[in-house]
Automatic annotation (TrEMBL):
GO terms for biological process: photosynthesis. It comes from Chloropicon roscoffensis. Residues 1-93 are annotated as: Disordered. Keywords: Photosynthesis, Photosystem II, Plastid. Coiled coil: none annotated. The lineage of its organism: Eukaryota, Viridiplantae, Chlorophyta, Chloropicophyceae, Chloropicales. Residues 96-330 form the NmrA-like domain. Its main location: plastid. This is Protein HIGH CHLOROPHYLL FLUORESCENCE PHENOTYPE. It comes from the Eukaryota. SUPFAM superfamilies: NAD(P)-binding Rossmann-fold domains (SSF51735). It is found in: Plastid. Transmembrane segments: none annotated. InterPro entries: HCF244-like (IPR044256), NAD(P)-bd_dom_sf (IPR036291), NmrA-like (IPR008030).
Length: 409
């Protein structure tokens, strides 16, 4: 197959189910299924970090911690005691660490948590452009990397709740970040007796174990269940923000968008609403060691999404359709070559598309249990209408010089 054709198929699948990925609009993988190994051995915390926290003597200043005198080592921790931290010093129930705080979902969780009165710490990877906007909001920013477990303990000192919004970048291995990194984070939380862990997963991940990312999400859920931590798993259907980058902007800029002939429906949800419901769940005991599903008010096929964009943009979409059998055939072909495993993993979502199922879940009971008004939840129609009204007004003000991609609600 010619390289440009392969790229086209890759973009179709990434665009179609980009919103399924927690916190980002695309997905990547290692080309293999990675089930949790039986009896997996926890990684070793560095001795100095273990001794520091056992003595309760960390002094956190942004991302740094001082090292006190040595203390006797202890054996591996017993199941988590939800009444005290590892050093015996009480931690505030409002202390929170958000992992992946700069992402599409993570930043909304940070804002909502700060507004609700939480003391928010954000774990971000070292970067050339610092995440100053998080500091401006009032959060503390600490550096750490899921792929480097020794950087995790300092960020967790004095933390009651961890909200895990992190996911790998498109160029990264799903196994390394979304599996090995998450296992390291969960094991560190075990060792330091974190009292609440929130993990974002994918709706129906247990039904699509041939898709590497969905398989890893499900295995992480099972790993959490066996960890002894007090956890809440939140399965998501898709983000409205993905619709903007994959369809709303290209249609407005008169660029081609990719579509398929499937009838799969997705109940997209605004990340602001996901964050709002997450904080509501933290206040409810019923969410403890439970799996929740968050879904938008209505599910849409990709053809319907394109139709909405056309209506509010006042423009016709240039749609390049690719039959599902071509995507499936291409995945089988590329799986024979090691250098195309990332492409193959992306195309694995073609099997999800081909199922013609609906990524939607009833929310009435969830809203009632969380004490949240469903009428406050953003609909996709209103989201797109507000987006286009802002963008079109701005374009008119600047003389229609195309800068559509700079505006997100």
């Amino acid at each position: 197959m010619a390289p440009h054709n392969l790229l086209s198929k890759k973009r179709v699948t990434s665009a179609r189910l980009g919103g399924l990925r927690s916190g980002r609009c695309s997905c990547s993988g290692s080309g293999q299924q990675h089930a949790r190994p039986a009896g997996a051995t926890p990684f070793s915390l560095s001795d100095s970090l273990r001794r520091q926290h056992q003595r309760g003597s960390f002094q956190l200043a942004r991302a740094e911690a001082s090292e006190p005198a040595n203390a006797p080592e202890e054996t591996d921790p017993a199941p988590v005691d939800a009444t005290a931290n590892l050093g015996g010093t009480p931690v505030k129930p409002t202390s929170m660490l958000v992992v992946g705080a700069t992402g599409t979902l993570g930043r909304q969780v940070v804002r909502k948590a700060l507004d609700a009165g939480y003391e928010v710490r954000c774990l971000v990877r070292p970067r050339e452009r610092p995440a100053d906007f998080l500091r401006d909001w009032g959060a503390i920013v600490v550096n750490g990397d899921l792929t480097n477990p020794e950087t995790l303990p300092p960020a967790l000192v004095g933390v009651h709740t961890v909200i895990d919004c992190a996911t790998g970048r498109p160029e990264e291995s799903v196994k390394q970040v979304d599996w090995e990194g998450k296992v390291a984070l969960i094991q560190t939380c075990q060792a330091m007796k974190i009292q609440k862990y929130v993990f974002y997963s994918i709706f129906n991940c247990d039904k699509h174990l041939s898709v590497p990312l969905m398989s890893i999400k499900y295995q992480t859920e099972k790993f959490l269940e066996e960890s002894g931590l007090d956890f809440t798993v939140i399965r998501l259907c898709g983000f409205m923000q993905a619709v903007i980058s994959q369809y709303a902007v290209p249609i407005l800029e008169e660029k081609s968008v990719y579509g398929t002939d499937d009838q799969t429906k997705i109940a997209y949800m605004d990340t602001t609403d996901v964050a709002r419901l997450t904080l509501a769940a933290l206040e409810k005991k019923d969410s403890s060691r439970n799996v929740l599903t968050f879904a938008g008010p209505q599910a849409f096929t990709i053809q319907q999404v394109i139709g909405l964009c056309e209506r509010y943009a006042g423009a016709d979409a240039k749609v390049s359709k690719v039959p599902m059998w071509q995507l499936t055939a291409t995945r089988v072909l590329t799986s024979f070559f090691q250098w195309t495993v990332d492409v193959t993993d992306r195309m694995a979502f073609a099997e999800v598309l081909n199922s013609n199922e609906s990524f939607v879940a009833p929310m009435q009971d969830t809203y009632a249990e969380l004490g949240v008004d469903p009428n406050q939840t953003m609909t996709l129609e209103r989201y797109l209408q507000e987006y286009y009204s802002v963008v079109l007004k701005k374009l008119k003000e600047v003389g229609a010089q195309s800068r559509q991609g700079d505006y997100y609600l």
